[in-house]
């Protein structure tokens, strides 16, 4: 029988007010992973009230920053013990190969929590230069209740990007998890609870965007909204949050250029570019889905790349030998098919894949796909696909590639492969992207800020810089002069 999951609100496991549930489906075989309470508007309101109460009074408010850090670090140690179990749960939910979850997503997720646990007692203001008759200083204070809306591609890792700095700063949080991948986050909540997290500090409400997500983004008692997802949905979140003029951070889509110069180390560039497009079935916002190859090495590079892509092992995400699993859902699979079809109609040449994989008729598998003869005007080169589909474009020189790479609505990441560091620095300056990778692609580090430009969003997650998104500055002016009001004639 399928396991049943409830909402986690105010330290308690509860059914949705409506009593409604939904099924979490394994995208590899169509089987039901679990039956989950479907959070709605009333549930979000209860979660926000619980978070507000925990923020304003009780043990969390009184907890010293060092003690907060120790509690978060305690959770991180249990997460290490449970990492393999959580990786399997997440692979069943999102279809990402078990090795990618076990050796990339889970360690990265826990590393983020450890990083911010260490920053909990380092949130500090400044003493300002002032005349001797006054004392000016600043305080860094938590914002209050954080509303976090997280996606389905890496549920635990991307939840932790928001959860860890928010709690380290002293905030409380309500997380609206995706209806496609709700289970691993609920399992994580149990670990926080068992470690002694005070009631109401962490609340999890799985549900759909149109009701639970909108309710959280527009709730008048939420102090800040943090969202990761598509650019289209990000605009809706921003509109909802604007009703109450609350700050918003948006980590959105990307159509990221990956640029291979003639002097690149070809084997490294092939391997890195493979990871950059086919990891997690291409369902990565930082994926290098636009591959630009300089004319001098185009044929050699593409021969090696295509040959290696043909060897990708598609299959059961729980099999350690699997390199690519299924797409997350049938609608996502169908969108990939539509965009590849549009590429064909526009004149692109499908040299590999371009169709569903026959791995499992009940799963949402799509073959690794490569399109050549792509031009920058084609839909396939302009729209985020979020699938294992690579658009390949030739370029002439540095000037040509800067124009082509920046010809996009997005600006999340970019990759540059060259052994010429002078050229690398020129490209770093010229590319409009929040992260520029040199001789690598799609990497993440807890210490390094991550976020986009243009319609890839704003705000920076990870790194010390992310703490700024979950704190506010209070200025204090202490007047030391007894006669400072005389000027007013008082």
Task: Give structural notes.
With 490 residues, the protein is of the alpha/beta class. The protein has 2 domains: 3-252 and 456-475, Aldehyde Dehydrogenase, Chain A, domain 1; 257-438, Aldehyde Dehydrogenase, Chain A, domain 2. It is built from 14 helices and 22 strands. It has helices at residues 41-56, 59-62, 65-94, 98-117, 155-168, 183-194, 209-218, 231-242, 266-278, 298-309, 330-345, 379-382, 398-405, 421-430, and strands at 3-5, 7-9, 12-14, 21-25, 32-37, 134-142, 145-149, 172-176, 202-204, 224-228, 248-251, 257-260, 290-294, 349-352, 369-372, 389-395, 410-411, 413-417, 435-438, 453-454, 457-458, 471-479. It has a 7-stranded mixed beta sheet with strand order 14-15-16-13-12-18-19, sandwiched between helices. Helix 1 runs parallel beside helix 7 (209-218). The longest helix has 30 residues, at 65-94. It is globular and about 80 Å long.
| Number of beta-strand segments | 22
Number of domains: 2
Name of the top-level CATH class of the largest domain: Alpha Beta
Topology-level CATH name of the largest domain: Aldehyde Dehydrogenase, Chain A, domain 1
Strand arrangement within the widest β-sheet reads 14-15-16-13-12-18-19
* CATH homologous superfamily caption of the largest domain: Aldehyde Dehydrogenase, Chain A, domain 1
Query: First CA to last CA: what distance?
Result: 78 Å
Number of helices: 14
Radius of gyration: 24 Å
Percent in strands: 15-25%
The geometry reads as globular
Q: What structural class results from the helix and strand content?
A: alpha/beta
Query: Residue ranges: pLDDT <50 for 5 or more in a row?
Result: none
Task: Please give the share of residues in helix.
Answer: 25-40%
CATH architecture of the largest domain: 3-Layer(aba) Sandwich
- Overall pLDDT metric: 96
- Largest pleated sheet: 7 strands, mixed
């Amino acid at each position: 029988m399928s396991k049943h999951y409830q909402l986690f609100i105010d330290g308690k496991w509860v059914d949705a007010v409506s009593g409604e549930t939904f099924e979490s489906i394994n995208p590899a075989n169509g089987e039901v992973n679990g039956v989950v309470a479907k959070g709605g508007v009333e549930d979000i309101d209860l979660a926000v009230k619980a978070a507000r109460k925990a923020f304003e009074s009780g043990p969390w408010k009184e907890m010293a920053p060092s003690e907060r850090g120790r509690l978060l670090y305690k959770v991180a140690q249990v997460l290490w013990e449970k990492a393999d179990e959580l990786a399997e749960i997440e692979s069943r939910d999102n279809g990402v190969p078990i090795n990618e979850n076990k050796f990339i997503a889970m360690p990265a997720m826990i590393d983020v929590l450890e990083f911010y646990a260490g920053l909990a007692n380092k949130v500090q203001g400044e003493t300002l230069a002032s005349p001797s008759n006054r004392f000016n200083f600043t305080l860094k204070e938590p914002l209050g209740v954080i509303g976090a809306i997280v996606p389905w591609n890496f549920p635990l890792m991307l939840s932790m990007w928001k959860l860890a700095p928010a709690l380290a700063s002293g905030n409380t949080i309500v997380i609206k998890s995706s209806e496609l991948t709700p289970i691993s986050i609920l399992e994580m909540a149990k670990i926080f609870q068992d470690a002694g997290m005070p009631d109401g500090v962490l609340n999890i409400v799985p549900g759909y965007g149109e009701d639970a997500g909108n309710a959280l983004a527009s709730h008048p008692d939420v102090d800040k909204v943090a969202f990761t997802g598509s650019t289209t949905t990000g605009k809706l979140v921003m509109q909802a949050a604007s009703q109450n003029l609350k700050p918003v951070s948006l980590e959105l889509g990307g159509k990221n250029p990956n640029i291979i110069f003639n002097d690149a180390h070809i084997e490294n560039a092939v391997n890195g570019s493979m990871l950059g497009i086919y990891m997690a079935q291409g369902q990565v916002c930082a994926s290098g889905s636009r591959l630009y190859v300089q004319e001098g090495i185009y044929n050699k590079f593409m021969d090696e790349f295509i040959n290696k892509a043909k060897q990708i092992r598609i299959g059961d995400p729980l099999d350690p030998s699997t390199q690519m699993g299924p797409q997350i859902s049938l609608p996502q699979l169908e969108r990939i098919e539509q965009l590849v079809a549009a590429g064909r109609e526009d004149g692109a040449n499908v040299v590999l894949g371009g169709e569903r994989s026959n791995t499992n008729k009940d799963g949402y598998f799509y073959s690794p796909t490569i399109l050549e003869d792509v031009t920058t005007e084609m839909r396939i080169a302009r729209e985020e696909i979020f699938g294992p589909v690579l658009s390949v474009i030739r370029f002439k020189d540095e000037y040509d590639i800067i124009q082509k790479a920046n010809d996009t609505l997005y600006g999340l990441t970019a990759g540059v492969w060259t052994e010429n560091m002078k050229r690398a620095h020129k490209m770093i300056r010229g590319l409009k992207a929040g992260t520029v990778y040199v001789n690598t692609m799609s990497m993440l580090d807890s210490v390094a800020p991550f976020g986009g430009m243009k319609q890839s969003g704003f705000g920076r997650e990870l790194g010390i810089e992310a703490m700024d998104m979950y704190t506010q500055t209070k200025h204090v002016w202490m007047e030391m002069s007894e006669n400072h009001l005389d000027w007013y004639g008082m």
